[in-house]
Write a structure and sequence with these properties.
By secondary structure, the chain is α+β, with helices and mostly antiparallel strands. The protein has three domains: 154 residues, 2-Layer Sandwich (D-amino Acid Aminotransferase, Chain A, domain 1); 81 residues, Dna Ligase, domain 1; 147 residues, Rossmann fold (3-Layer(aba) Sandwich). It contains 13 helices and 18 strands. Strands 7, 8, 9, 10, 11 and 12 form a six-stranded antiparallel beta sheet that branches. Strands 1-6-2-3 form a four-stranded antiparallel beta sheet, with helices on one face. It has a four-stranded parallel beta sheet with strand order 14-16-17-18, with helices on both faces. The model has no long low-confidence stretch (mean pLDDT 90).
Length: 389
Amino acid sequence: MKLHEVQAKEILKAAGLPVPQGCVADSLESLERAVRKIGRFPVVLKAQIHAGGRGKAGGVRIAKDAPEAASLAKALFGRRLVTAQTPPEGLPVDQILVEPAAPASRELYLAATIDRRAGSSVVLASASGGCGIGEAASHDPGALVREVFSPAEGLHPFQARLLASRLGLSGQVSEAFAEAAMAVARVLVETDAMLVETNPLALLESGHLSVLDARIEIEDNALFRHPDLECLRDVRQEDALERRAQASRLSYIPMDGDIACLVNGAGLAMATMDLIRLHGGRPANFLDLSGGASAAQVGEAFRILFSEPRVKAVLVNIFGGIVKCDTIALGILEAVRAVGIRSPLVVRLEGTHVEEGRKLLRESGLPILAADGLDEAARKAVEAAKGGA
């Protein structure tokens, strides 16, 4: 679950990080109040969406006075902002964060995340922050310095000081950066986050550090432990089909292809998508039913898949282990009879009660394309999407 910048900054502020005074507005009237509350110019207006790259897309603007702030906000409210990290249609701007402009003499990068190769948590830092950090790190991996830490122990003070030293910081700035690094690591652990990022962590002309931008992503599977964080969810920023799938405990991720996939098991789903690509097709989604899906979940999965207008074929690939093939077949038939078949449907069943499942599909009288093997199923789905069925 992603948080807005303003929400992430509140969490970081509570953890002791230096955050600029800011006010969030959801209308022109509340924006005028926010500008008056800040009481000085210039101010920065920042569109609150769940994506980076806002500055390049016109989502971060500086206003020198109140009329200019109102004019810029009017152009942002209700707009769908498109960045390199949003869907093609962009994300809606419903809130704007207003902060006083803070001249920075230097921009740093500081984040904490999960290092899956090391099997632990890690703090990342760079002497050059800002919007170019991703490109800089890809061209020069040494631009990022890192310290792995145990979630049980947190980032040790000596590790934090080592990070500051490797960035060339000294004196009070070094001490402040070390404190910030330990706080970011602490927030990662305490919130069950996948990412806690400050970019830039600016060194102001006054000599103090300030978090000018922040990003936090919470692990969805840990939200049951954080009702205070779950209530911060902004569903307007999330894909409607992803939310619908989540409500039925389905793992769904939309993609840009035209062959919808319904598979049980993440590994089998990945193999299915790979074979679709191998045969010249493009997957429209990742959808994992998991091991113990019910007929009702199968039915809802089909409704989600058929609601995608770009889908030209559907491939069902089920290995019946915990969930039996006849249960899957019943779910398929229930869904198809409810919503109809809008695209060619290819089904490959294998495993427990496979013959019973195949019989149910065969005797249904519905135009379902059966496949005996995974390769055959992928090939038939690609052919069907291209108009061959």
